[in-house]
Design goal:
The complex is a heterodimer.
Chain A lengths: L4 H31 L17 H25 L2 H33 L7 H21 L4 H31 L16 H39 L1
Chain B lengths: L2 H19 L1 H20 L7 H29 L3 H7 L4 H30 L7 H27 L5 H28 L5 H29 L2
Helix pairs in contact in B: 1-5, 2-3, 2-5, 3-5, 3-6, 3-7, 5-6, 5-8, 6-7, 6-8, 7-8
Classes of the chains: A mainly alpha, B mainly alpha.
């Protein structure tokens, strides 16, 4: 069942408010990270990116996980809203994934001395991006809304099952590969101020995820309604 | 008729069509040989030895040749809407999946059987009993890959740009098995003890089981209108 135009518009305006809160949170996070959190001893300012990079990676994984679950629910219940949500969440996940692969090299250059390392988590992000890139290629290539929903749900569920294999692959990949030279990425013990900022980053990105998905869901619903009118 | 019998009927039909024309087989094999060749030409002969590239080239070739081969799986049915006929026939969707999968598996294996000796020849791979195990690894990887390919080719034919869609959907799914299989191959060719291999084979087996089951469950959703 596709939400009606009024519900879709409401979803978009609510999403805008949540996004605005998220973006204000992001501004606050910048201030916290740069002004109120001590610089890391070895990496200096480059380490500040860690208040953005891991939260984005977490938001991407959450987004793709929800796409997979929503795809499964669509196949079981055949409710269009699960398709709209799966699409919205996947698209937002792509954005967070791109943030991860852009911020990764920015940090990698000063820390590792190279722009790109086949480091496990960065590799994993790339694998997820090409996987969901395929998901969108598929969506774009099917005109009939019901077919599109069905086939993308199949793809979304297949992707959900592939994720653990991708995790396994990059884990083994890393054990085959020399450790990054300058710093290790294994979790150090964080001082309290850093931990506080770090966790704030996760909260902020969760809010941004919600805001983006709500808006994208509303936009998707409006497009679906348009398709019904056009047909 | 049991489900396996029905599956066999479907597979036999596909293989018979292929055997009579052999166009797809010739094309797919030629394609695989060209992949073997292009790496030789893209390589800097002074610094990179063919032996170092050997395992990688084998797995690139297997991945790409499977894609090209699988692309034909439902193209065949699309002509004259033959699939509609099969779907009308009193045959279970699971049997249809099994039959298509079996035909694809046989077809990819035939292409690989022709390509494999050429790979040994072109890349100067030492002929040892380990090669039999490499072939076994290839078989293990192909089982899972063709299961996914059977499902995705049924989706791809229903899209625009069908020929391009299958590679884009499938290649992300090939990354883990290609990695496991290539690691196993490197160890086999390097004469490493067998227990170093078991882990990689286990991952391949796990992948096969997970995706064969999932593809079999999702296939009826895809073909039913």
């Amino acid at each position: 069942m596709i939400p009606d135009a009024a519900a879709a518009n409401r979803q978009i305006s609510r999403g805008r408010v949540v996004t605005l809160i998220g973006l204000l949170g992001l501004a606050a996070l910048y201030v916290m990270a740069l002004q109120f959190t001590p610089p890391e001893r070895f990496q200096g300012l480059a380490q500040k990116i860690f208040y953005i990079h891991p939260p984005a990676a977490y938001a991407m994984q959450m987004a793709f996980l929800f796409t997979g679950v929503s795809s499964l629910l669509y196949l079981l219940l055949h409710d269009e809203r699960f398709d709209l949500f799966a699409e919205a969440s996947a698209e937002v996940g792509m954005v967070f994934g791109l943030i991860v692969v852009i911020t990764g090299p920015i940090w990698g250059r000063p820390a590792w001395g190279t722009w790109w390392e086949w480091e496990p988590r960065l590799t994993f992000t790339v694998m997820e991006l090409v996987l969901f890139g395929g998901y969108f290629a598929l969506r774009g290539a099917i005109r009939d809304p019901a077919d599109r929903a069905k086939y993308s749900a199949v793809m979304g569920l297949m992707a959900l099952v592939l994720v653990p294999f991708n995790h396994l692959t990059v884990y083994l990949f890393a054990s085959q590969h020399p450790e990054p030279v300058v710093v290790k990425t294994s979790k150090p013990e964080l001082p309290l101020e850093m931990l506080r900022t770090f966790l704030t980053g996760f909260a902020v990105f969760t809010v941004i995820y919600l805001g983006f998905v709500m808006q994208r869901y509303g936009i998707g619903a409006r497009r679906a309604l348009q398709e019904v009118t056009d047909a | 008729m049991s489900i396996f019998r029905m599956a066999w009927v479907i597979a036999a039909k596909d293989l018979r069509i292929e055997y009579r024309s052999r166009t797809a087989l010739h094309t797919a094999t030629l394609f695989a040989v060209l992949v073997l060749l292009i790496v030789v030409f893209a390589r800097d002969g002074g610094t990179v030895s063919l032996a170092t590239l050997g395992p990688s080239v084998l797995w690139i070739t297997i991945a790409l040749a499977s894609l090209v081969t699988l692309n034909r799986a439902f193209m065949l049915e699309r002509e004259h809407s033959a699939l509609d006929g099969i779907l009308l026939a009193p045959i279970s969707r699971s049997a249809l999946f099994l039959g298509k999968w079996l035909a694809n598996l046989v077809f990819v294996l035939v292409v690989l059987t022709i390509t494999f000796p050429l790979w040994i020849l072109f890349y100067g791979v030492a002929v040892t009993p380990a090669l039999l195990l490499v072939a076994g690894v290839a078989l293990l990887a192909t089982v899972g890959v063709t299961a996914i390919g059977t499902l995705f080719s049924a989706i791809a034919v229903r899209t625009r740009h069908a020929e391009l869609m299958l590679p884009v959907l499938m290649l992300p799914f090939l990354l883990p098995p290609v990695y496991f299989a290539a690691q196993a191959t490197v160890r086999l060719l390097g004469g490493r003890p067998l227990d170093e291999l078991l882990g990689w084979l286990r991952f391949l087996l796990l992948y096969d089981i997970a995706f064969a089951m999932l593809a079999a469950m999702l296939f009826p959703v895809v073909v039913d209108e």
